[in-house]
Specification:
- The chain is of the alpha/beta class.
- Helix content is 33%, strand content 22%.
- Strands 2, 3, 4, 7, 8, 9, 10, 11 and 12 form a 9-stranded mixed sheet that branches. Strands 1-5-6 form a 3-stranded mixed sheet, with helices on one face.
- The radius of gyration is 18 Å and the shape is globular.
- It starts with 5 loop residues before the first strand and ends in a 6-residue tail after the last strand.
Length: 290
């Protein structure tokens, strides 16, 4: 792929509307009333189809102040390709029905100076976890460029810490971090049944307990505690690699706040198979009073 090539949409007409006006209206509906947060530094948002996770994604992106940021570093998991480190997109942009989101060349060059980051378009060919966030960015601030990052490793603690340190090179006052992840994928079709599907109330209660065990260390930006919880429970957080890398970027300077949480069970009523969604905002940590 040459530097001027554009990644065409994988999702228009399926995961979100193909018509620009319909897509814009759907994103606005998910965003709700604007409440931009001037203290914001990063967000975590889900990456399912808008029917399922749009409300949670909207809660995260509604905190973004238009004009506050020059670029967004979007850190997402690779679902279809497994590889060491991370892949950055080497083209010039991503197309959605709302137009083209420009790639920040400077950010891409900075990351690819590290051997942990490869300029590789192949993992983006089918991937949804990054593209699904882009219409939200386009609606909240169409001027934003992005640094697209797909993380191919999920459980190598040392490598993810190194990725986080490398991402920190982009951590300035003009850069918003967007971390893409869903939470528990529950049910036989996901190969994860930590408890039996004994009914919707039981499953909802157990899912909440399981998910909040992961959400709480994320809010504290405690990468070690998050990794230990994932290892102990086997919780199917598909973006655990991007989350872990980001926690090393924001550790000791940010605090997280949960903005929204629910599951696809709440949307569909299917308690035998469910995916969990959360929105988290990260802001500068408040120092304890002396």
């Amino acid at each position: 792929m040459s530097a001027d090539e554009i990644q065409r949409s994988n999702l228009a007409g399926t995961w979100y509307p193909a018509d620009a006006a319909e897509l814009h209206a759907e994103v606005k509906r998910c965003l709700g009333e604007p409440h931009g947060d001037g203290e914001l530094a990063a967000i975590l948002a889900p990456h399912a189809g808008y029917r399922y996770s749009g409300r949670a994604a909207g809660a995260a992106f509604a905190t973004v102040v238009r004009g506050r940021w020059r670029r967004a570093v979007v850190v997402a998991p690779s679902h279809y390709h497994s590889f060491a480190g991370a892949a950055v997109f080497p083209g010039s942009g991503f197309e959605t029905p709302l137009g083209v989101v420009r790639v920040d060349d400077t950010g891409v060059r900075t990351l690819t100076e590290s051997p942990l980051f490869a300029a590789d378009a192949r993992p983006y060919a089918r991937e949804h976890s990054l593209e699904i966030e882009l219409p939200f960015l386009q609606v909240v601030d169409a001027a934003l460029s992005i640094v697209p990052v797909l993380v191919g490793t999920h459980d190598d603690a040392a490598e993810l810490a190194a990725l986080g340190r490398a991402l920190s090179a982009l951590d300035d006052d003009e850069t918003l971090f967007v971390v893409s992840s869903d939470f528990t994928h529950y049910g036989a079709q996901f190969g994860y049944l930590p408890f039996p599907p004994k009914g919707p109330d039981y499953v909802a209660t157990q899912l909440r307990r399981l998910d909040f065990g992961a959400i709480e260390p994320i809010q504290r930006l405690d990468a070690r505690a998050f990794a230990e919880y994932v290892g102990t429970t086997g919780i199917t957080v598909c973006g655990r690699g991007p989350i872990t890398a980001f926690l090393h970027v924001g550790a000791e300077r940010l605090d997280g706040e949960l903005l929204e949480y629910y599951t696809s069970l709440d949307v569909t009523g299917d308690y035998e198979h469910s995916v969990s969604y959360a929105a988290i905002a990260f802001r500068a940590a408040r120092q304890a009073a002396a």
